Structures are given as structure tokens and as C-alpha cells.
Amino acid sequence: MSTQIHRISFRILIVDDDPVDVRLTMEALRESKVVANIESVHDGMEALAFLRREGEYSQAMRPDLILLDLNMPRKDGREVLSEIKADPELRRIPVVILTTSKADQDVIQTYDLGANAYVVKPVDLDQLTSIVQKIEDFWFTIVKLPLDE
To answer: Of residues 149 and 131, which shows the higher confidence score?
Structure first.
């Protein structure tokens, strides 16, 4: 007989270089019914250091979900996604692309790289709040996620 562990709160990592988008996304997540510990980093290099628990992120908790922007300095979201999905320690973490790009090429490329979903950020604050809350609700109330060990 197996024992099922229920997590009281979930961990979300936002990877986005736009401080306004980060703030709005965090506000939307905090308004939802799901309890979440939200962290953010500002580029792909920081994201990989956070996920690999390197340097200043040595005590970072493994996220249950990553919201990843595509167009960032130093290392863009496509490169980060590719490295996450190639890493046996990280590849099970769901990655939702949350970006302003509507380009079909970006959609195809990120799904080919292993993205779990692709969402275009709306410019309207109410729409962004609604979309972010739906993402959170889906991933934390409907989907069964693997527990990290």
C-alpha cells in the first residue's frame, strides 16, 4: 500500500526579464485560491543556477512549475528550456512558456524542445490575471505532478 503525500503549497519559478510582467504575474498568482511560494529570476543564466542550486541559489527549493519567458538577455528561454528538458534532474518540471511572442515558429520550436504549454501574454491586466490564475489552477488542482525526492 502506498502513502500519498499532499503538498499544502506549491512552488512556482517565474523566469522573465521584465520587472513589470514579473510583478503582474506574481500579483495574479497571489490572488488565486492556490497557495504558492513564488520565486523569480531575471534571465536564463539565473534560472539554470536556481534550478541547479548553484551559488547564491544553493538553498533554492525545486519548483513544481516554471513560467518561462522566451526573449531574455544572456540566455533566452529556448536555450533554458532545452537545458531543462535535457537534464534528468530537471526534465519532469512542467514548463509553461508565458511570452508576448505569437510567432508560429516559436510555438513549434518550444513544443519540439519539450514545453508543456505555450501561452501568449495578453496586454490587458485583467486578461493576464485570468490567464495566470487558470494556468495555476490547471497545474495545481487538475494535474497530478511528480513529487520531488
So the answer is: 131
pLDDT digits (tens, 9 = 90+) for 90-133: 999 999 999 999 999 999 999 999 999 999 988 888 888 889 88
DSSP string, 9-23: SEEEEEE-S-HHHHH
- Tell me how crowded residue 120 is: count the other CB atoms within 10 A of its CB: 14
Q: Which residues pair with 111 in a beta bridge?
A: none
User: What three-state secondary structure class fits 92?
Assistant: coil
The answer to whether residues 79 and 110 touch, using CB atoms and an 8 Å cutoff, is no
CA dist 34 and 146 (Å) reads: 17
Crossing angle of the two packed helices 19-30 and 125-137, in degrees rounded to 10: 60
User: What is d(CA 126, CA 110) in angstroms, rounded to the nearest whole number?
Assistant: 26
Give the H/E segment covering residue 141: none
The answer to whether 77 and 44 have CB atoms below 8 angstroms apart is: yes
Whole-angstrom Cα distance, residue 14 to residue 43?
A: 10
Helix (H, G, I), strand (E, B), or coil: what is residue 46? helix
- Of 3.30.450.40, 3.20.20.70, 3.65.10.10, 3.40.50.2300, the CATH number of 10-136 is 3.40.50.2300
